[in-house]
Records
---
Amino acid sequence: MAKPVEEWVEEVARLTKPDKVHWCDGSEEEAEKLVRIGIEEERIGDQPVFHALSGRTFPNSFLHRSHPTDVARTEHLTYICHPDEQTAGPNNNWMSPGEAKEMLLNLSEGCMRGRTMYVLPYLMCQANSPYARNCVQVTDSTYVAVSMRIMARMGTHALERIGNSDDFVKGLHSIADLDPNRRYIMHFPQDNLVWSIGSGYGGNALLGKKCFSLRIASWLGRREGWLAEHMVIIGVEDPEGTVTYMTAALPSACGKTNLAFLESALPGYKVWTLGDDIAWLHIGPDGRLWALNPEAGVFGVARGVSRATSPNVMRTLESDGFYPTLFTNTALDPRSNEPWWEGIDEPVPDGLEDWRGRPWDRGSSAPAAHPNSRFTVSLFQCPTRPPESDEPRGVPISAMIFGARRTRLLPLVWESFDWQHGVFCASSLGSETTAAAMHEVGVLRRDPMAMAPFCGYNMADYFRHWLDFGQKLACPPRLFFVNWFRVDEDGSFIWPGFNENIRVLKWIIDRLNNRISACETAIGLVPNLDDLDMTGLNIPRDKMEQLLEIDHGSWSVEAADIEHLYRQFGDRMPPEILQELASLRKRLSGSYRL
Ligand code: SAT
Ligand code: MN
């Protein structure tokens, strides 16, 4: 008798009608073969799927040019399909499962004709972890198949784990005709199913990533008592050799990867990289919070990465490994055969090809690399990946950081008064939008816990879950908030960011060890200026004061906007959060120092 996984694959093949079905074993030879097919046989629009880059500087690396309409996540085409619309909540697009499946069945009929369907068995988390989940994705894209092998633990071992069981997460993916009007990313939490059609782009197509490890997993986490979060996991080693583990939630394209790969600007400090995008958080038997990265690779933003700003990212990209490295929608220097992007610390070469493969004029106002150009690289190639990344239960977390991109208002860093106040602060964060998703860039939108596009259920229930989760932690981590993006009157960033962010991490460690006090303000605990280690950094004191300033008038406007966010959720909103908002308003109208 056929196994459930075989039956499912057969059923999908009957619907999508590929010419061939190939079960991937995850081997190096297989990946080489897929890349070769992508170079020699397949095309996306007028471009080959892969272009081999200079093996001298970027060994085993390939450039992928996507379809020009398929360059970022499409949140307006991303749905949660649960029978109850309120369970999906106003934070998600909703369709009933019946209607969604009917539509997808129509769109998927014969959609793989002329192509090969690759079956990708994979695990999220390492096989020895009690939190590992078995998954199978089918796809008709070699780019997706090669990417999934980098990002997840893909191979026959996953199939062996599944065996005769029907307990695996299903991902049905087809690029179909890449028509933006027939592009849907649909989640069926009750069926452990993601069905994505019409896009080959990262977050839309690598279904183990945002679709499963955040949207479906956040839903599972609520039922099972854990959290799936859009967070970096790092260990910060101090000069005494003590490592403090932290998570950091930041919206897409706001520097998570650079933070995860930070090379300390302060002597004696070192950052260890455990994850750059997703953290699964569990309560340990010791009552502490433990974090594990379910992924095995990085799908990071290329623009702005350079040897000066992110040397560890560059080292990772330039090193040779068991896995290929992919560049998506960067520019290309055809003479050196190297990828190029704005912000790389190289002079602009002559004769660049832009991200679409067209000749690029250096006088052009359009960038050569797409603003959301990306690299896909194995974390095993990262020189700062520590051995504890392989710990089955992850690492114990002492501090959780939440960040936003705000050119005004938010100070560089602050700490919450306690867990409940921290959950309120995280739930209320607003951030200016980036090119990671298809929408207007630079517009302020509320992005609670950097999860607005990724929370797979009603966000009011999610806030409730966060509050309850904190109650169950005997030793909860302390909660901190950061904004690297504040600008001065001239519109220039005040804080240099990147590797200098270690100064903020050091302040956090000093707070955790009760070495320093902080200034109690209306919004939380803000650094006393002299407690931020500014050795070797030349920022005038008045600028630093500006960076930490809390303007009560602007914060009152912010409070009104936060109330607007909460109103959408009606009486599903936890009263504790509303009380926190009321307390903030009271403090803003009182006589706090700043
Ligand atoms: O495309 S992804 O969703 O994987 C990257 C991101 O937007 O964070
Ligand atoms: Mn992300």
---
Amino acid sequence: MAATRTFSIIKPDATRRNLTGAVTKMLEDAGLRVVASKRIQMTREQAEGFYAVHKERPFFGELVDFMISGPVVVQVLEGEDAVARNRKVMGATNPADADEGTIRKTYAESIEANSVHGSDSEENAKTEIAFFFDEDEIVG
Ligand code: GDP
């Protein structure tokens, strides 16, 4: 199968605990290659736009507050079946439900402060990558 791309965010709970390298190592060990990466402070407008699909959910306001509570690292990951591969190493949304050896089981603090974001479909991956990166910032 050809290499595909997905979009990842190392969330503020992880950057605060200096886990950027540790999380990235788990992504790399899972067969994903970081082909773009930048540390940014998201604006409220960016966070609201990025999570617009969750606008009606009761935790939307808290989620936006959390995502702008500190720096994040946005990344493009490349690998065989990248979307599914990344979702597998991330683990379930709620760390209490996540499998052993996953990033969220290892590092997440709560269902909200769960250390990583990963696209849930090829289509969303394309949209999310374009939200944060120009094509010339991605070097495979
Ligand atoms: P994901 O695809 O596994 O990240 O999960 P979702 O798309 O369902 O949710 C997006 C993000 O919203 C999650 O990663 C969490 O940071 C947050 N979130 C999800 N469910 C809850 C919840 O019940 N309460 C709060 N406070 N945050 C949540």
